[in-house]
Automatic annotation (TrEMBL):
Gene3D superfamilies assigned: 3.40.50.1460, YVTN repeat-like/Quinoprotein amine dehydrogenase
Ranges for domain Peptidase C14 caspase: 717-942
Segments annotated as WD repeats: 34-75
Record-given protein name: Peptidase C14 caspase domain-containing protein
Length: 954
């Protein structure tokens, strides 16, 4: 298994020169966002009270986590650019948790020097930039008293010490021969530094150098750690598995920890337990556990003198380890992942990555003749296979497909490329292929006509003719692990280290399309270079636009769903495999749908940006009246027209009819009444284009508890239509689905709910007027203490412009606007309900009877309803263009059968008597798959502002 070498990538970057100057680009940059890092985590940092964990990554983000639970609290976004600019190597949180420092390849593209960024932890705002550093920042740490910030630099530039009063430079040591990846401070503020130049340096509490000694083990000491009492220092190396323990006072060698069993790897990161009795180290050393290779952390007793145990923790290199109270440690890896090992050696927290591991899939990376369908694996070597059809936008787990999919061609009569697998020196017919220094070859494919070949490397996708002349190259956002060329020779498809699969035009290397398949094997998003996209339910939150605000401010990030009205265009993507040109695909799709092309920059239609200033996240409150202070910006310049206040994702109050034109950042306040319980408070600001990303804080009730808890009421509007007026539309069990759902939920009266109030509309009663009246009824009856459910079973249809309609019993598909229920009617109702809202939608029944113009795809509807501003939990019977199945044996649709069984008790997965949204989702997904033998895939989407909650009890 290939592991990340600790210093290779960083040293490559150090050897590059800063060559540009100016300002960060203002143009939007499309980025993946999974609420987890997408490439290796370089460093960790933890505050004194162990409330927060901070991580920094090559993915150009700094993330703040709740240490106890691993919950993501904030994503800090420094200014970035294409290429290396913005990569984070080092992070540090101040001991009191108020400030976060981050640095790496930061600022050089516009300043010609590197910068350290200082963020306010509560607001997530960039408040200070330390400029003028000559090289990349490799390590950062605050002193234990918070008075100083120390930085270790790349190259032969040594260390810098800053006063945190004003972040002025107070001390520096430039007398180094190579990079500084590690240092540590003792309790009495002595500083010890390790450098790849082979030396260990010791400084007194005034940061004066008092000792310099050659490291006793390897030639490249990487990380270093003081024992809690300061008497000993542990040293890990990049070039050997040795772990040395030296004196904390004179750097003399004391003893070595037992690293037997390894010779070709390293234990580069080292730390001590809080009581100093245990020594931990990790790096690239791996062992077999249950027939699977795992990277280990080795833990020694007796301060490194005693026996050891090996703890399997990750699947790639351990990049950093830090001690925790209770004698455990926190770790970060190159997967990326992070976690906690407790004091007895058990993993008590693990946060894994969300990306497909596309490494070394080579002959298992298969492609259809036109390049539209790709077979890949979610795991290394092509394991855990899936097939994605980009033209139909369908993801199928497993290898079953009716298409003939072919592997890459690795050798032809005239092209024999050798030494291309993980090699710096690939050869064509025995002659060297010219690559950049340190550029490593990873993948190969030869065109079917034998005239060209492509080489994927650590940095680029390169195309050559059969004589080895380069025709084009394009930068890649990660290592190009896999490549294949379509049978018609029109496209080359690449699998990258960032978990994306990308389509490039073979003619000139122009990117056409990118796919990000989430590791959960359910969500995905597909987009063009101009930002037009299609996505599975819940998938449009996986990418967004990063927009810089200058070099002294944090960047903004907007999920693509904020621009759904203009950029959700499945029809454009469908045309790419007939045109192989984005501009022509746009023109054809607009012509067919009757849309006019609107040339609008993302920057001109940005939503507002709102931040909660107080109360802070995690605040305890004891009064029902709460004042909320917020800051507001409006980057597009359009007035803010509303500010919504949500509690646990549902609207409680707010300000409408506003005309706020903030110049810069404006501070305001809202007075609200809150419930006497723990809850999440969110603010959403709106302008005429869209709604902001919600600002959310968690608040904990510490006041007097309610003496009597009143159960909520449940209001249900259930619609099921089998006997359509148009005989060609008739179904078997849609009416019975609605009846069985109601019957099941009525049994919850007196259990979870005080009362269950139902309006049931089936067959002839489910006319357009009756359904609209039912929506009005649901809106009027539901209060903020209640739960509303909308159940619809029947036919749905999209018109030529993609607008979704639900067909009532008397619908005429030739007159949709006059006879069908527009999605806007449903959305306006459920989004304005005061209480929690759950929608069950089973409307994707076979559409063959509806004619060619009738296409059913409810994905856009699901994503819009589940957005934070609408706040609806949606259970849908199937994904994309899949059909919902019904069977006389079940006497229901598969979806409703699973829902009913789940609510009746089978979804009580923990056996505690409660069935929550998340439990019901898990049960329905597996049960429908079982009933339909994998032909139908239900989906559930829940807004980020809505926590899990019970919908039934046993």
């Amino acid at each position: 298994m290939k592991l990340i070498k600790l210093t290779t990538i960083i040293l490559i970057l150090i050897n590059a020169l800063y060559c540009l100057a100016g300002e960060p680009p203002r143009e939007p940059i499309l980025r993946i966002e999974t609420e987890m890092h997408t490439t290796m985590i370089n460093r960790l940092s933890i505050d004194r009270d162990e409330r927060f964990l901070v991580t920094g990554s090559f993915d150009k983000t700094i993330r703040l986590w709740e240490l106890r639970t691993g919950k993501l609290l904030k994503t800090l976004r420094p200014p970035i650019d294409e290429g290396k600019e913005g990569m984070i190597y080092a992070v540090a949180i101040s001991p009191d948790g108020r400030y976060i420092a981050g640095g790496g390849w930061t600022g050089g593209k516009w300043d010609k020097t590197a910068s350290i960024y200082i963020f306010d932890r509560q607001r997530g705002a960039l408040i200070k930039r330390i400029e003028g550093l000559p090289e990349v920042i490799l390590h950062l740490s605050f002193s234990k008293d918070g008075r100083f910030l120390i930085a270790g630099l790349g190259g032969n530039n040594g260390i810098r010490i800053y006063s945190t009063k004003d972040y002025s430079l107070i001390k520096e040591d430039k007398e180094y021969g190579d990079s500084v990846f590690g240092f540590d401070l003792s309790s009495d503020r002595r500083l010890v530094v390790s450098s790849l130049d082979g030396y260990i340096r010791l400084y007194d509490k005034e940061f004066n150098l008092i000792k310099k000694e050659k490291a006793p083990g390897g030639k490249r000491p990487y990380h270093i750690s003081f024992s809690p009492d300061g008497s000993k220092i542990a040293v890990g190396y990049e070039d050997t598995p040795d772990v040395d323990i030296i004196s904390g006072y004179d750097l003399k060698s004391l003893y070595k920890a037992d690293t037997s069993g390894f010779s070709e790897c390293s234990f580069a990161s080292v730390t001590w337990s809080y009581d100093g009795m245990l020594l931990y180290a990790g790096g690239g050393c791996q062992k077999l556990f249950d027939d699977k290779w795992k990277v280990i952390i080795r833990r020694w007793d007796n301060g490194g003198k005693g026996g050891f145990i090996d703890i399997p923790v990750a699947e790639n290199t351990i990049m950093h380890i830090l001690p925790l109270k209770g004698n455990g440690v926190a770790f970060a890896s190159g997967e990326p992942s992070f976690g906690i090992v407790d004091g007895v050696g058990r993993i008590s927290l693990y946060k894994g990555n969300a990306i497909a591991d596309l490494r070394d899939q080579w002959e298992k990376f298969l492609l259809s003749y036109d390049g539209s369908t790709v077979r890949f694996g979610y795991e290394v070597l092509g394991n855990s296979p899936a097939v994605f059809d980009a033209e139909k936008r369908e993801l199928k787990i497993g290898e079953k497909t009716s298409l003939r999919l072919l592997p890459p061609i690795f050798k032809t009569e005239g092209i024999n490329v050798t030494d291309w697998k993980s090699n710096y020196n690939p050869r064509l017919n025995g002659k060297p292929i010219k690559l950049e220094q340190y550029e490593i070859s990873r993948s190969l494919a030869i065109s079917p006509d034998g005239k060209r070949f492509v080489l994927g490397t650590g940095w680029l996708l390169r195309c050559f003719d059969k004589d080895g002349n380069e025709l084009w190259n394009v930068p890649a956002p990660g290592t190009v692990w896999d490549v294949n060329i379509s049978g018609n020779g029109r496209v080359v498809v690449a699998g990258l280290a960032d978990g994306t699969i990308r389509w490039f035009r073979m003619e000139d290397g122009k990117e056409l399309l990118a796919l990000f398949p989430h590791k959960d094997k359910r969500r995905w998003v597909l987009w063009t270079p101009k930002g037009y996209y299609d996505a599975s339910p819940g998938g449009e939150e996986l990418i967004g636009w990063h927009i810089n605000n200058g070099k002294d401010s944090s960047a903004d990030f907007y999920p693509v769903g904020r621009f759904r009205d203009r950029f959700y265009r499945p029809d454009i993507i469908a045309k790419l495999f007939t045109t192989y040109d984005e501009e022509r695909a746009i023109a054809l799709a607009n012509e067919e749908s009757g849309r006019k092309r609107v040339e609008t920059s993302i920057k001109d239609i940005l939503p507002p940006v709102i931040t909660i200033l107080s109360p802070a996240d995690g605040t305890s409150i004891s009064k029902k009246e709460l004042t909320v202070r917020y800051s507001l910006r409006n980057p597009s310049g359009e007035p803010v027209t509303a500010i919504k206040v949500l509690i646990d994702g549902r609207p409680v109050s707010g300000q409408r009819g506003l005309i706020i034109k903030p110049k810069g950042e404006e501070v305001g306040k809202l007075n609200i009444t809150v419930p006497e319980r723990d809850f999440e408070l969110s603010l959403i600001a709106e302008n005429k284009y869209s709604a902001s990303v919600p600002a959310t804080v968690r608040l904990f009730w510490r006041g007097k508890k309610e003496e009597f808890i009143v159960k909520p009421k449940l209001y249900i509007l259930a619609i099921g239509i089998s006997r359509y007026k148009d005989e060609h539309l008739r179904l078997q069990f849609a009416h019975k689905d609605a009846e069985d759902f109601v019957k099941t939920m009525k049994k919850q009266k007196g259990k979870l709910y005080e009362d269950v109030v139902v309006k049931l509309l089936t067959d002839e009663r489910a006319t357009k007027d009756e359904i609209l009246d039912g929506l009005d009824w649901l809106q009027k009856e539901t209060t903020h203490k209640d739960l509303a459910m909308l159940f619809i079973a029947g036919h749905g249809i999209n018109d030529t412009a993609g607008i979704y309609y639900f067909l009532p019993q008397n619908a005429d598909i030739e007159k949709l606007k006059r006879t069908a229920i527009a999605f806007s009617d449903i959305k306006n109702t459920v989004s304005s309900l005061a209480g929690k809202v759950v929608m069950f939608a089973d409307t994707c029944h076979s559409g063959n009877v509806m004619g060619k113009r009738a296409v059913t795809d409810i994905t856009g509807v699901i994503n819009e309803l589940a957005s934070a501003e609408n706040g609806v939990v949606v259970f849908a019977s199937s994904t994309g263009r899949q059909y919902s199945l019904e069977d006389p044996e079940w006497r229901n649709g598969a979806f409703t059968k699973a829902v009913v069984e789940g609510i009746q008790g089978k979804a009580d997965l923990l056996g505690k008597g409660k069935i929550t949204v998340n439990m019901l989702d898990t049960f329905i997904a597996e049960r429908v798959k079982e009933l339909t033998k994998g032909r139908q895939t239900p989906v559930t989407t829940k807004p980020v502002t809505v926590p899990d909650f019970p919908v039934a009890v046993r």
